[in-house]
Amino acid sequence: MQGIKPIYKKELSDHFSSYRFLILFALIAMVSMITAYMVGMSISKELKDIAKPKFVFLMLFTSSGAWFSLVQFVAFFGPLIGLILGFDTINRERNEGTLSKLLSQPIYRDAVINAKFLAGLTVVAIMMASIVLLISALGLIMIGVIPGQEECVRIFIYLIVSIMYLAFWLEVAILFSILFRSVATSALAGLAMWIFFSFFISLGASAIANSLTVDANDNNSDALVLRTKIETTINLLSPMELYTDSTTIIINPMRKTTRTLVQMGMMEQLSMSRFSGPLPLSQSILVVMPYFIFLIAITVVFFAFSYVAFMRQEIRSL
After folding, report:
1. Which one is predicted more confidently, 149 or 223?
2. What is the model's pTM?
3. Selection from 247, 29, 244, 243 nearest residue 154 by Cα
4. Cα–Cα distance between 85 and 176 in angstroms, integer?
């Protein structure tokens, strides 16, 4: 595609040379390293002079430090990375008058939006890969356990899912930067969407589930299962819930389902006691595949909205 390569290189150069990227990366790396250090100290203290259990290396990503684990940190604060990187991608150049000059060159118009998204995605991938490698290196030093092949594959899958999750929020920010001429408005719209999916959708899911089962007996197990199923279904509309459920299964082999409430009879309890070991990697992938596919789908949908909105804008108004 004509023009995509030079725009891609320019966007990468702008990202890596900006103080915004340096401050953001330094802050995320610092919080991640502090969390991993506290988790590593706790693990090394608890497992001192005893045989290391299987998948102990993955505990660096799932165990909580003083406040949260790495998985929880990326799930909650990760959207801010994508929003900060993309909230002024288009409207800043439009307000400065450089976008009209760029489109007057022999460059395809869709090359601009494609190159800007690819550049942001590259930055996100580099940031996440660097953080995972730093935490892994710190874990090797503190725990003294070399991760096995399955652990490495699980960490790699976790990295891919995390990059796709941040790519969704990057695309949300790019969409708002196309729709709104003001940089402040696009930033506020992205923050509002993050707050909605982080807080209000879970509160709304609980309220709707309680209202739909208000006549049910609280002591009835069927009513409790129905209420939980309604609440879980509504929560799955949130990308944060999709990411949390999928990464929890991938990074924690002892988790066998994303459901928080499982009604078990006598035979189910017997089966759970017989097969209480870690879930194989292939089975973990099968469990989280619908969540991962849906996460990719909504990212593609938002990219399509951004693409159509940018292509239909008048060049004279840019």
Report:
1. 149
2. 0.87
3. 247
4. 12
